[in-house]
Every structure is written in C-alpha cells, then in structure tokens.
UniProtKB/TrEMBL annotation:
Coiled coil location: none
Native source organism of the sequence: Hirundo rustica rustica
PANTHER family per record: EXOCYST COMPLEX COMPONENT 3-LIKE PROTEIN, EXOCYST COMPLEX COMPONENT SEC6-RELATED
Family classification: Belongs to the SEC6 family.
Subunit structure: Interacts with EXOC2, EXOC4 and EXOC5; may be part of the exocyst.
Function as written in the Swiss-Prot or TrEMBL entry: As part of the exocyst, may play a role in regulated exocytosis of insulin granules.
Protein name (record): Exocyst complex component 3-like protein
C-alpha cells in the first residue's frame, strides 16, 4: 500500500516539475481509499473485488497501449523533421558557394562596365544630335525676315545651338548642319494647325502639339539662360510669340467648358473630362518646373487648376445670386427662395452623382461646390436683407436660413447625404445678423400690432353709440370682442415667432406686453374722453353704464389671459408695469360708474340735512332705490368686480351722507332736537346698512359704521365726557381732522368754549397715523370755513 524509498526518490523530480500530476495522484489515491473502505465496510461487496481487479487491469493496459502509440507517432515526426533540417543545411551550403563564385565573377567584370559607360554617353550625344538635326530646320524656316538674320548666318547659329545642346561637340557638325534641307512642317505651320484644331474643338490633339512647341522653346531658352545669352533669348521669344495667343485661345475654350460644366456632365461629359485632363497636364508641368527651380519659362506657372476653381465658383455665384431682383416682398420672395432651394439641390445632385466621376479625387469637387453655394447664398441673403423687407419677408428669410436650409428638403436631402455636410461651415447667417433681423422683424410686427389694436379700439367705441346694449356671455355678463381680438392677435404672433427661435419668441413676447400696456393707456384715454362727452349729454351714449361694465369685464378677461402669452406658462407672471396699467384701467372705469351714481344721488343729498328730513321724509328711501337700480346693473359684471363696485358705492354713499351732515345746516338748540337728530341718523344708517347687506356686502366691509359712531358723539348727554368719546372716535377713524370735530360740536349746540378747548387740546396731544390698508372716509370731506365776526373797532374784537 505504501511507496518504497526508491519510488519516492524517483517521483520527487517529477512532482517538482508537474505539481498538477501530484495533485491528481493524491486525488486518485483518496478516491481509491474511499472506495476500498466502502468495500471493507460492507462485506457483501467483497465478492465483486476480483471483477473490479480485472477491470482495472484491462483499463491500465488500454491506457499504456495508447501512450505507447502516441509516443511512437511523436518520435517518428521528430525524426522526419531532423531529416528535413539536414537537407536544408546542405542546400544552404550549396547556395553560399554559388554566391561566392558570382561575387568573384562580378569583380572580374569591372573593366567591362567602364566601357559600357562610355558607350552610354556616346549614345546620349547621338540622340541629342539627332534631335537638333530634326528641330533646327523648323526653327529657321520662319518667313519673316525681320525675325531672323540673313540665311548666310544660319550655319553659325546652328553651330551655336548644337554646341549648347551637346557640350564638347566638334565644330565640323555646324558645317554638316548647314547643308540640311528643312523638312515639313515648320513651326508656323504647326501654329496654324493648332489653331485649326482649337477651332474644331479637338482640344487634346491641339494641346499635345502645343506642349511639343512649348517644350522646344523652353529647352532652347533654358540652354541659352544657362549660357547667359540674353540677346538670343529675346530672339527666341520673339520667334515663339504666337504661343501666347494659342494659350489664350485654348484657355478661353477651357473656361467656357468649365462654365458650362453642370450642363456638360449631363449632356456631354467627354468635353468636360478633356478640359480637366488638359488642366491636369499643365498642373504637372507647373509642379515639375517649380520643383527644379533652375529656369522658369515665360507664362509659367499657368495655375490652371486654381483658375478652374475660380471659374467654377464664379459660374455658380453668377448664375444664381447676381441676377437682379424685384421681388423683395411677399410671395415674390417666397418663390425666389423656393427656386433657389430647388436649383441648389438639383445642381448638387449633379455634382455628387456625375461631376465627381469626371475629375480626380483630390479635386474634392463636391466639398468645393457645397462651400461655394453656402458662401454665395450667405452673401445673397445679406444683400436681400439690405432691402426694406416687410415682416413676411423677414420671417421667410429667418425660417429659410435657420430651418429650411438644414432640413431634409435641402442640404439634408437624402440624395445628398452623407457626402454633403454643411455643419462644418460657418452659419448661413451669423448670430449677430440673426439678432439684427429678429429685431427688424419685431419692429415690423410691432407696427402691425399697433395698427390692428388702433383699429380694434376705434371699432370698440363705435359700438358704444349703437342703439343696443353690448353683447353678453352665456352667464349674462356684459362683454365685447375686444379681449378675444387683442389676445388672439398677440398670441398668434408669439406662436409664429416660436417657429424660428426661442430668442425671437421672447422678443415678440416682450413686445406684446409693451403694446398691450400702451393699448390699455390709449383705451383709458378714449374712455376719459367718452366720459367727458357723456357729461355734456347723459343721453349719449344710450347704454353708457352697460358699456362701462363691459369694459370692466374685458379688463378682467385681459388680466386673466396675459399669463397664457408667456412661452413657459408655468412662470407666466404679469409684469408690474402691465398690472399697473390694468389696475388704472379698472380704476378709471369704476370711477366713471361712481360718477354716474353720484350724479343721481346728488339731488337727494342736497336735501340733507333739513327740517323736512328730520321730520321723517323718504330721502334715504329714494337713495336706496337709486342704489338698488345701480346694483342691478352692477350684477352684470363678474363676482370680484361686483363686490368691488358695491364696496365703492357704499363708500361713496357714506361719504356723501357725512359730507351733507357736516355742512352745519342743522344746529341742535335743545336736547329734544339732538334726540330727534340721533333718531334720524340711526334710521338712515340702519336702512342703508341693511340695503348693502342685502346686496351681498358684509358689515365688516361697510363704511356706514362711521355714521353710527358720529351719532354717538351727538347723542352723548354729558358734554364733559366728550373728550373721551372723541378720543375713541379719532382712534377708529384717524383721518378725522380738528375741523370735522369742531363742526360736530357745533351741531350739538351745547358745547362750551372750555369743553371745546379741552377736546381740541386732547386731539393735539394724540396725533393719529393712518394704518396700512385703511380706507379714508373723512379726508375727502371739506367743511365750511367758520365766518369771522365783522369788527369796526381798531384792535381785537371781543
């Protein structure tokens, strides 16, 4: 069961090298021991121990046979690999021997290579001589005797040029050249042929011949330049002067083709491709000459590729954006922008689908055309904005530049994406230009809103003079169409502005509030003027009070609707200045209604106080009838306004009643008269209070309590207590003055000078301050000035 010492020593290196094997072996031993313990624990299983031993023996034999097979296969592969390595080593050794032999053979051939170099130089001289022999007769065949010297000088010039072309050439070559007969064609005949090719639009052939002549001229001028023969250079330039005209003629045709490129790539792309090929040839020649930087022939660099871009850009700009326009407003501008949109998309499609295939990739023609259209369109929009556009024109430009231009209907068209991308370019309209345009648009809208509001105001007051009441809503409240018209007009302008930018919407919103505030001011002025006219003839307008009530309802409707104008309805607070204008409007309409009530109450108030009134007349009853009639009219306004009108009417009635009482028309001469006066005051105040309570005005909101308090002063039996009673009175009504109290003491008729002095002294010692929210009652009541005694004696009158 255990391992011997030798087994442990043999297993030790393996265990150190393969710790996993040691772990696996321990696990196997543990499993075997567990199984064996289970077998010995249960004796009935000992019978199967022999079967288990045979099965394990067979499995070990199978594993050993598979291991032997695997090791054998591995050894055979290693043997084959070693054999291949031996063969490869032998081949490498053979190649090294061959390379050594080749190296020695190459070293032995050095002398032969020197002879080949001399032969190559001789061949180059021969080629140059042949070229000179062919070219010189053409050069000197010019028919113009003013250009070249006499024929007898030709051999000398020929010898000179040969010496230039072939340094070290023998002088006798010039003698041979003098006897060469000039072959055809001549240079001038070539010029004529090139011109014929240009006229026939055989541009490639013409350009090939033109390049040959230019190459001939440039070679000669280059050699003359190196020799420092400036006089000969001038002669050659004069002789080849016709090249300039040919170049200009070719260039003109090329630029005409480029100018018609958008049409040609659809109809005849061959002509356009020909022009591009010629331009590229010339560009390569320019690049080569600039790279050498030794001699730059006349007319170089031509820069035709740059000219190609310029002509293409000028064509795009001139065709769409330089045409005179007379449709700066209204539908004309919309048609113009729609035409631009259609044409630009169509032409960019042509560039993307056709022109790109006709030019080299490095032309980046689609990006160039896109940038050209973008810049030209930006400049064009600025030109349009210099005109005096109406609000519709300004809106169209803003919408088109900020939304339509980038939409799928134009630069974001599916046929143009993703190759066409204007996001990397500058904005079509700069932020400063957009802001200026928005301000111009706001001014135009402001003028339009002012005009509409003024027209609405005129129509509104025309309705006042119709022989019928103003319209009512479903609850019977008076109203007119003015709030709906005004708010709809302002809201529509704000909503339209939201289609452009948030900043424009905010500008229009601010303008709308300003115009609404100004409109309320004009409405108030018109109301005042109408009130003055009504004072002159109360029969006109017939339904004056009803229209004033409609004005109050309209003002309330406007106040409730202002918050809906704000782009963010959650924070639509009414500005303080606008709220003040609404409050002034409401106050003026309320004032005019109270003036009407006062005009009907004044004839009755003039009869107060009087002996007839003290005896029990129905003056207050008549006043109640007038008040009740007006209250029925006031019921045609909404609840907060109705309560306000009741409160103001009650304050007016209390004020007029107290004003009439304090005129000192009645002075009590006895206690009985004071009692009669107090009884009358109690009946009148109670009747008026019950009337207003019945109309819905709570007692805490009424000012008639001042009549009850004043009655208490008059009813006080002991004048010595007046100072305390007056102190309580002025504490409750701090706007009471000394004159008011003196008048009340006069009405009592039983107050001595000493008591009066005590009362007034007490008032001087207790000055009152009006508390916040106090509604003044006595401050608007003026009492008559007491008459001073007339005295003829000098000095004081007793």
């Amino acid at each position: 069961m255990g391992m011997s010492a030798e087994d442990e020593r043999a297993a030790s290196p393996r265990d150190e090298e393969w710790p996993e094997a040691e772990k696996a072996e321990k696990l196997a031993r543990g499993a075997a021991l567990k199984w064996a313990s289970g077998v010995f624990y249960r004796p009935e299983k000992l019978e199967g121990l022999g079967h288990y031993r045979r099965r394990e023996t067979q499995r070990n034999s199978s594993i050993q046979s598979r291991l032997k097979s695997t090791v054998q296969s591995y050894l055979e592969g290693v043997s084959a690999g070693l054999e291949q390595l031996r063969s490869a080593a032998q081949e490498v050794q053979s190649v090294c021997q061959d390379l050594g032999a080749a190296r020695w053979a190459l070293l032995d051939s050095t002398d032969h290579f020197q002879g080949l170099q001399q032969m190559r130089e001789l061949m180059e001289e021969h080629v140059q001589l042949a070229s000179v022999v062919q070219v010189l007769p053409q050069i000197f065949s010019g028919p113009d005797p003013m250009v070249f010297p006499e024929p007898q000088t030709f051999p000398l010039i020929i010898s000179l040029i040969i010496c230039i072309y072939i340094p070290g050439a023998n002088p006798f070559i010039s003698t041979l050249s003098a006897g060469i007969s000039p072959p055809s064609p001549t240079v001038h005949e070539v010029f004529s042929h090139i011109l014929q090719l240009l006229h026939g639009q055989h541009l490639l052939e013409a350009h090939v011949e033109l390049m040959m002549v230019e190459q001939l001229r440039d070679d000669i001028l280059s050699q003359l330049h190196l020799r420092g023969l400036s006089g000969a250079q001038a002669t050659m330039l004069s002789y080849f002067s016709g090249l300039q005209d040919l170049n200009e003629s070719l260039a003109k045709q090329l630029w005409d083709i480029v100018g018609s490129s958008l049409r040609l790539v659809r109809e005849d792309p061959v002509l356009f491709v020909t022009a591009v090929r010629i331009i590229e040839r010339e560009e390569k020649i320019d690049d080569a000459l600039l790279l050498e930087a030794t001699f730059l022939p006349p007319g170089r660099p031509k820069g035709w590729r740059q000219k190609f871009y310029q002509v293409l850009q000028d064509t795009i700009t001139g065709a769409r954006f330089h045409a005179p326009r007379t449709d700066a407003e209204g539908p004309g501008l919309a048609k113009h922008l729609a035409a631009l949109q259609k044409d630009i998309v169509s032409e960019l499609r042509v560039v993307k689908d056709l022109m790109v295939q006709c030019v080299p990739a490095h032309y980046n023609i689609l990006s160039v055309c896109t940038a050209t259209y973008h810049q030209a369109l930006s400049s064009h929009l600025q030109e349009i904005l210099r005109e005096d556009l109406d609000k519709q024109g300004l809106f169209l430009l803003l919408e088109w530049a900020l939304h339509v231009y980038h939409s799928p209907e134009m630069m974001g068209h599916p046929d143009l994406l993703p190759e066409v991308d204007v996001s990397a370019l500058d904005p079509l309209m700069s932020s400063e230009l957009v802001d200026q345009t928005e301000k111009r648009y706001v001014m135009k809208v402001k003028a339009s809103v002012f005009e509409w509001m003024q027209r609405t105001l005129e129509v509104e007051f025309k309705e006042w003079f119709r022989e019928e009441e103003p319209e009512t809503d479903h609850q019977g409240f008076f109203q007119s169409a003015l709030p709906a018209i005004v708010m709809q007009m302002l809201n529509e302008n704000i909503q339209v502005a939201s289609l452009i930018t948030d900043s424009l919407q905010q500008k229009i919103y601010n303008m709308a509030l300003e115009e609404l505030e100004a409109f309320l001011g004009r409405l108030r002025e018109a109301l005042v003027q109408c009130g003055k006219e009504h004072q002159q003839d109360r029969a006109v307008p017939k339904y004056y009070i009803s229209h004033l009530l409609a004005v109050l309802n309209n003002n309330l409707a406007l106040s409730n609707s202002v918050s809906s104008l704000h782009p963010d309805t959650a924070c639509g607070e009414v500005p303080a200045s606008l709220q003040a204008a609404l409050d002034r409007m409401q106050k003026k309409a309320t004032q005019l209604l109270l003036e009407e009530l006062l005009l009907d109450l004044q004839p009755l108030c003039l009869q107060l106080p009087s002996r007839k009134w003290l005896s029990g007349s129905q003056l207050v009853g008549s006043m109640c009838e007038v008040i009740d009639k007006y209250a029925k009219d006031f019921s045609r306004v909404r609840s907060p306004l109705f309560t306000l009108l009741l409160a103001e009417s009650e304050l007016l009635v209390a004020n007029q009643y107290l004003r009439a009482l304090l005129q000192r028309k009645v002075v009590c001469k006895s206690r009985e008269e004071r009692g009669q006066l107090c009884h009358r005051l109690l009946q009148d105040a109670t009747q008026l209070r019950e009337l207003f309570c019945g109309l819905g005005l709570e007692r805490s909101q009424q000012s008639l309590e001042a009549v009850f308090a004043l009655r208490e002063l008059i009813c006080l039996k002991d004048p010595a207590l007046l100072s305390l009673e007056v102190l309580g009175f002025i504490t409750k009504y701090p706007d009471v003055s000394d004159e008011h109290v003196s008048t009340l003491l006069d009405i009592r008729g039983d107050v001595s000078k000493e008591v009066r002095h005590v009362v007034l002294e007490m008032m001087a010692q207790h000055p009152q301050v009006l508390p916040e929210g106090y509604r003044p009652i006595f401050s608007t009541i003026l009492v008559p000035v007491p008459e001073l005694p007339f005295c003829l004696r000098k000095g004081k009158c007793a």
